[in-house]
Please model this.
Amino acid sequence: MSVQAWTYLIVGLTFALYIFIAIRSRAGSTGEFYVAGKGVSPLANGMATAADWMSAASFISMAGLISFMGRDGGVYLMGWTGGYVLLALLLAPYLRKFGRFTVPDFIGDRYYSSTARLVAVFCAIFISFTYVAGQMRGVGLVFSRFLEVPINVGVVIGMAIVFVYAILGGMKGITYTQVAQYCVLIFAFMVPAIFISIMLTGNVIPQLGLGSTVSGEGVHLLDKLDGLGKELGFAEYTAGGKAPIDVFCIAMALMVGTAGLPHVIVRFYTVKRVKDARMSAFWALLFIAILYTTAPAVAAFARTNLLSTVPGKSYSEMPEWFKKWEDTGLIAWVDKDRDGKIDYAPGKVFTQADKGNRSPIHKVGDDGEKVRVDGGQLVVENDLTLGPNELYIDRDIMVLANPEIARLPNWVIALVAAGGLAAALSTAAGLLLVISTAFAHDFVKKTLKPDLGEKGELVLARVGAAVAVLIAGWFGIKPPGFVGEVVAFAFGLAAASFFPAILMGVFSKRMNREGVVAGMIVGILFTASYIIYFQFILESENPKAHWWLGISPAGIGTLGMVLNFCVAWLVSRVTPPPPDYVQKMVDDIRLPQVD
Amino acid sequence: MSENSDAPPAAEEPPGPSSGLRFGAMSPEAYWRRNIVCVLALLTVWFLVSYGCGILWADKLDATRTPGGGIKLGFWFAQQGSIFVFVLLIAIYVVFMNRLDAKFTGGKS
Model:
């Protein structure tokens, strides 16, 4: 069977499964729609959280990102897992004990203030939309790469699927589809990884393959990789290059941001008891760790493969996968020095006049076909840099081309497509639910129309989810050029707003409404203006020279968080303490349930 | 590694009475204090492993290698080791808190 037939089959089967689960778990009440009736088992919730959390970026892009960054890439691995320690130890059990429906619920009730609630609603919606736009785009890309349908058709298909199960099932439907999606995505990620590990090192466990010797050579994989890179003029793969202060701040912003992301936090409302909230945090991190400890191995394997097959060779010597992915624009070669050899060196191939468009632009002939050089490679029309590098490689290829590099059967390639879709859809659904609940529950029911009945709220939540799907789809079809650039935004804002507000709500009885609102607003404004300034306003050849204290926009959420804490503390000291009933509530949140 | 030196709070707890009686149940203040101590101890390890071993001291640790010699230690902490420790930390926390809860509620949970 061809790759395409397999892809249609496997993707079709997984989609049918998701829809089936959604129909089986329709939500009948707001409790079921918002938090799955609080009856999810810790194991299932752990899987659902893992799928919720691991997005298209984790599945498709992260290993590639690491393989270009070397040791510094560890900042993403640590940053996106370390947050779960904070979540498990500092937030999840208490939020579950508090036991309402949403994050703005906690902020609004704990700080006895509808202003605080509204600030939280705004943050939740903004963070979630920033994130979901990327997921819908991811769905479209997977479709276009594997099934050769236009990206927009892919986005529409993805929207239709999420539409059905998010609107029918709410959190209940989403939870159980996410469990299925976790199984699909982890299987799809591990199968190629295991085979490549066997091929390269003879070790069945990719996590251990990273530290093994290369088959038949007696040299350790990472040493070989360091050596291969050095010959071409790259820095050592296993050495760090970035300033520690910046790495430190980025890791902190990612960890704290992870712990503050509303679509992750809300998953801990769905279990029965406080105990289960702790346990599901453990399962969640364990399930995430399976992928996250494999990713650095995949990164090193893929880079070793690349460096030992491509540089210095001619186009005709290239393996099949090189040509296939060249066609999709993920890889490109321009023979700058006309020596017929593919030269790979540090630095960019193309100049980036347009920040948004970094991929190769293929020259198309009069007959509508892409034009090829005599030797065979596609002709690209991008402006070239003066540097020696001739090879353009999209980081996504490190995961997407893995099955072909390992010469795995066609169904494995199809599986990777299904895995990427599972990762993107599960995250998108979780985010859409946050948007719909923030709108229906926190904004309309709690702020505008407190007398709204249960039925009316449920209808409104469904309408909210539907509208959110449509907006997300629109973002996917017409992505604002800055989507890739503003992911730092979501984490920075979560770090500078929700994390401190919830933490102080549990651990400081003295923290009051004035303090927390002031803290959140200062944190958000500071973080947002720093990122906006560097992303959109400053036009400089060397933006790094303008960073404060050497901190990049990706790490600035850390400072935003510190500012939030300081401002909140200062303001709360000069304003009245929270009323007695709120202090009692905090006492109650801290103690275990006696059932 | 340092997780061993900070982990003991879980083991140090005297084995309290776990019968159904409220006998020996602790005060809310004592419960909260122990919770805080446990969390602080675990977060100290969390910080030392990731920010310390994985970032600030990574270059120094790179002089040493993991057993088998395949991976430099700083690199390993940055890319795999800290994640394993994170999982372990949550596991310790779950066990510790479940025991503490049982003591507080007098075994009914």
Summary: Chain B touches chain A through 46 residues (CB under 8 Å). Residues 1-23 of chain B have pLDDT under 50 and may be disordered.
